[in-house]
Amino acid sequence: MIKTEKTNNTYINREISWLQFNARVLQEAEDKNVPLIERLRFLGIFSNNLDEFFKVRYATVKRIAMAGKAGKSELGGIKASQLLEIITKIVIEQQAESLKILSDIQNKLKKENIYIINETQISPSQHTFIKQYFLQKISPALVTIVLNDLVKLPLLKDSAAYLAVRIAMNSGESQYALIEISKNMDRFVVLPKEGNNDYIIMLDDLLRYCLKDIFNIFDFKSISAHMIKITRDGELDFESDLSKSFIDKLSDSVKHRQIGEPVRFVYDQEIEEETLQYLLKKMNIEESDSIIPGGRYHNRRDYMGFPSLGRTDLLYDKIEPLPVKGLTLEQSIFTVIAKKDYLLYAPYHTFSYVVKFLREAALDPKVKTIKITIYRLAQISHIASSLINAAKNGKKVTVSIELQARFDEQANIAYAEQMELEGINLIFGVQGLKVHSKMCVIEREENNKIKRYGFVSTGNFNESTAKIYTDYTLFTANQKILKDLNKVFSFFETNYLIYTYKHIITSPHYTQKAFFKLIDTEIVNVKLGKPAGIRLKMNSISSYKMVDKLYEASRAGVKIQMVVRGLCCLVPGIKGMSENIEVISIVDKFLEHTRLYMFENGGKPKVFISSADWMTRNIENRVEVTCPIYDEDIKKELTDTFDICWSDNVKARIINLNQTNEYKKDNKPKVRSQFATYEYYYNKLKE
Fold it and tell me: Do β-strands 560-564 and 581-586 pair in parallel, antiparallel, or remain unpaired?
């Protein structure tokens, strides 16, 4: 895989580390043991990740550079201008590698009798189908922009793909045009099957085949078309109009995102130089911007939706989500949770328990109030409909909905408007903070007293992501924990007050201090010869303060095991600094999303699940909740699942200073942790 530039030995730059996480995604696309169509879909994930990286992280570094700041303290010791060059170099190499992988996959698809053909390979029978398809489905919705020197170039949509068309006129002049590849059109057109062969043509090539039909009003001798794509700064810019509601302002700013500053221009490297220079000049793109030569096709994120063609043999086997032992969807969840805490681990367990819990609360006459935080909703959300149902039944429903969940604002805005109409009390976060905590508190009247029930999670209450993201959800009737969670909801309403909590750990006020205290305990214990150790599982770690604290623990002799899926600014294994720290990353069928923090605590382990990664934004700029686990059975379950991850020697990569993403290798029996975790829970049901 691609090697990156080394920074200093203290921290790994977060942008470079993130690009190496995306390289691990690319490894999945390259892995010949991954089913063929899944490999294509990993290419799509790689491309989609890269789009978001440029919208957010590259754009941030570019703003630092344009402001004339070096940014070295924020960027791990690298100047912003230098970092922009390093990023572009890495991305160009990764793009080149992704094209090789795509070519390899396409060749293997041919051996499976699946042919992705282009406009030069169309048979007479396919010609008839394509012409009809174009006339009926494509032509009526096609957006074609004819360019000339007198008219200003219309605004190109962020991350949409365009065919840049050069029409060589019989007069000797050139006419240019752009054809938008609409997101509403299927990128892959499945052609009629011929014998045992499946044929697919990309929409881009179908349009190339029909160029003469599109531009038949021009007197031309030849036409060529090459793909281009522009990525814009994804930062939202809020208006100061006081007469507008927050929802209206956010909705407008999501639309305005489409006119953000360009941060990346990708083009087909086969494009004519004359056409390329014309477009760069027309779009005011300068050489200081990230200009990246690519292949014939862009927006490879669309490969995430590559048609399966009924070929289940080229896909991962679908797993049937398991029931949680002791819980049932056919009886009251409240009755069971009243006696004991339960842990749901999606996608190994069915997410239906969360929906069932809220549906039961919506109908139960004894339930008086429902309070919940929402960060990312599914496009079709049973969570939202359950809350609306509860409001219709007279429950007092409070929803803290984060309308600034990046790139998911639109779905959240739509549901917020619906919930507002139904009389639900909506809280739009806290001034200057994103609400990223995942929790629900329900108040139920029992024996003339109010008893609380609830759940707290590491991930979003989203039916779609629950099928592919790994997340823990704790169902509990522990009144001490729920009393603390209820205080967080009070903070949303009166955030000029800072509450104290006896059990949970919250950001932005307490997270760093609380974890420092837990780490200090391990440092003291190791010096006293008591059992000591730290095991952490998270998406990312970029807070230098947290990294430095782990270095301090390592120097004291505390053994630290970390499973970090994404970016990791910590450098493990450096003598005198971090020789007692080991870090692995697991990228596989499911997206690892759990946050699990375990401290040996002298032989009486403290275990927490959390919505917070150890990033500066999670610790200082968001409302996060870290919840202790008191149930000994669940503690063991979490310890077991961490051990399974740590023993992975199939999909685990070693994180080190060199950032080479080498697979973890040992002589032990093969353990693929995601499959082993499913087997663990399957066997628990038999016990």
Answer: parallel
Position 315: which residue type? L
Does the active-site annotation cover 436? yes
Which of the 8 DSSP states describes residue 662? P
Q: What's the pLDDT score for residue 684?
A: 95
- The answer to whether 230 and 258 have CB atoms below 8 angstroms apart is no
Mapped onto helix, strand or coil, the DSSP state of residue 609 is: strand
Half-sphere exposure of residue 70, counting CA atoms within 13 Å on the CB side?
6
Whether omega before 347 lies within 30 degrees of 0, making that bond cis, reads yes
CA–CA distance, 7 with 19 (Å, rounded to integer): 14
Position 405 scores a pLDDT of 45
Q: How many residues does the chain have?
A: 687
CA distances from 641 to 164, 537, 600, 646, 675 (A): 51, 11, 16, 9, 11
The SS3 call for residue 195 is coil
pLDDT of 246 reads 40
The residues with which 435 forms a beta bridge, in sequence order, are 623
Q: At a CB cut-off of 8 Å and minimum separation 6, what does 287 contact?
A: none
- The whole-angstrom separation of Cα 400 and Cα 471 is 20
Phi and psi for 183 in degrees, rounded to 5?
A: -70, -20
Cβ-count burial of 73 within 10 angstroms (0-12 exposed, 13-18 middle, 19+ buried)? exposed
pLDDT in tens, 357-371: 999 999 999 999 999
Cβ proximity of 38 and 308 under 8 Å:
no
Cβ neighbours around 632 below 10 Å, total = 10
Dihedral of CA atoms 9, 15, 20, 23 in degrees, nearest 10, equals: -170
Answer for the pair 351, 463: CB distance below 8 angstroms, yes or no. Answer: yes
The answer to which of 1-5, 103-107, 169-173, 611-615 has the lowest mean pLDDT is: 1-5
d(CA 186, CA 381): 24
The tens digit of pLDDT for each residue in 593-613 reads 999 999 999 999 999 999 999
Q: What's the sign of the alpha-carbon dihedral 452, 458, 460, 464?
A: negative
Catalytic-role residue among 436, 503, 509, 593: 436
Tokens standing for 352? Answer: 């239906």
Cα separation, 322 vs 346, whole angstroms:
9
Residue 1: pLDDT band (50, 70, 90) is very low
H-state helical runs in 432-543: 479-493, 511-528
Distance CA 228, CA 164 (A): 7
Helix or strand run (H / E) with residue 383:
helix 382-392
Predicted confidence (pLDDT) per residue in 75-88, tens digit: 767 888 889 899 98
- Quote the CA–CA distance of 596 and 564 in Å, as a whole number: 11
Residue 653 pairs with which residues in a beta bridge?
585, 663
Residue the block writes with tokens 């109010």: 450
How far does Cα 204 stand from its chain's mean position? 27
Pairing label, strands 581-586, 342-346: unpaired
The tokens of 33 are what? 């043991």
Local structure of 169: helix, strand or coil: strand
Q: What is the DSSP pairing of strand 434-435 with strand 622-628?
A: parallel
DSSP string, 199-233: EEEEHHHHHHHTHHHHTTTS-EEEEEEEEEEEEE-
